[in-house]
Amino acid sequence: MKVIFLDFDGVLNSDKYIRECGHTGVVIDPEKMEYLKEIVDLTDAKIVLTTSWREHWDKNPDECDDTGKLINSIFAHYGLEIYDKTPVIRPDREKEIKKWLEDNPETVNFVVLDDMRLEADFLTGHIIKTSAFRDALKEKDVKEAIRILKG
Fold first, then answer.
1. Residues 110-125: pLDDT tens digits?
2. What is the fold, at CATH topology level, of the domain defined by 2-150?
3. Fewer CB in a 10 Å sphere around the end CB: N or C, the chain?
């Protein structure tokens, strides 16, 4: 199984996009969702949430709160679905990803899409660091994610 560890803020939106939208909460840039869809379509990767928004989401749709249901709705609109989420081990996203990988040994390759600086050795060669202040996920990031996932 190939996996995309996905953050939202700074990946699926930028500070500029959030300001232009003028609202708070789960703000997703349609262009960034199209980029994510392209990665999934070309690699068959599963989406695993690392975003702090994951606390609203559950594998069982009935267990999602209203925000989790909105997240599912947004992803479904683009023909995408969320496979899973990392456990919460605050404040260490790297440990959350490592724990998820340990619990899912069938993972053959993965990429991390995040605007946070993640430096654990096991992540070397698997991270695409985006910029919340600039464009968030970009076309060049899509190409790199596909390259990483295809090995």
1. 999 999 999 999 999 9
2. Rossmann fold (3.40.50)
3. C
